[in-house]
């Protein structure tokens, strides 16, 4: 599905928030882990099945409440091929619930994740690292939230910082590509929106205020990824609260 399909899902539900799934075994309910430990013992299956159960429960809880789900590939790949199998299975479950599926893989080969609707890509091998078929989407990682991000992303490329220069290259490719922005620096989000007026933004690690600068005047052009919901005691309520809070900053028409 193209980014245009994702935008339509957001508009239809008036919901600018996606469920972010980056499960950590140590945070999963110990009773869940224990139940699989009783079946598999101290084996990798205990960990991967705990992740599968935890994420499936969350997908059930927020069904019909969000347009999309964003899976962190690293959270699953640390468990090898069994973790990869769980990630693929969860992607198909999410699709079955009508969710737009994005894998946050930070990859240089988006074809490896063809079973998802979209994938995040790292652009520094050149534009061929984010070539995807027309029915898929790629979100090019431009600005990230890790502490040392500025050591590279803020390097000057002519009169612009590197992340802005790459953003302009992405924008010139048209509306088939999106930008992935993970920072709570409002000025950086504003700068990228100024340079990439028509590009769709996937906003990770952004607070509501910073994220609001990624949307246009109609509340279009962006989606906020919320990873806190996955640890809530009542995920459905947490999703409602997250959407309500974001709507204080953005009105979708």
Would you write up a description of this structure?
With 253 residues, the chain is of the alpha/beta class. It has a single domain (3-244), classed as Aldolase class I (TIM Barrel, Alpha-Beta Barrel). It contains ten helices and ten strands. The chain has helices at residues 3-13, 30-40, 44-61, 73-77, 80-96, 150-153, 162-172, 186-195, 208-212, 235-247, and strands at residues 17-21, 68-72, 100-107, 118-121, 137-143, 156-157, 160-161, 177-181, 200-203, 222-226. The strands form two sheets. An eight-stranded parallel beta barrel has the order 1-2-3-4-5-8-9-10, surrounded by four helices. α9 (208-212) links the parallel β9 (200-203) and β10.
Largest sheet: 8 strands, parallel, barrel
C-alpha end-to-end distance: 22 Å
Top CATH class: Alpha Beta
By CATH, the architecture is named Alpha-Beta Barrel
| Average residue pLDDT | 94
Keywords for this structure?
single chain, 253 residues, alpha/beta, TIM Barrel, eight-stranded parallel beta barrel, two-stranded antiparallel sheet, 10 helices, 10 strands
Layout of helices and strands:
Layout: H1 3-13, E1 17-21, H2 30-40, H3 44-61, E2 68-72, H4 73-77, H5 80-96, E3 100-107, E4 118-121, E5 137-143, H6 150-153, E6 156-157, E7 160-161, H7 162-172, E8 177-181, H8 186-195, E9 200-203, H9 208-212, E10 222-226, H10 235-247
Helix pairs in contact: 2-3, 3-5
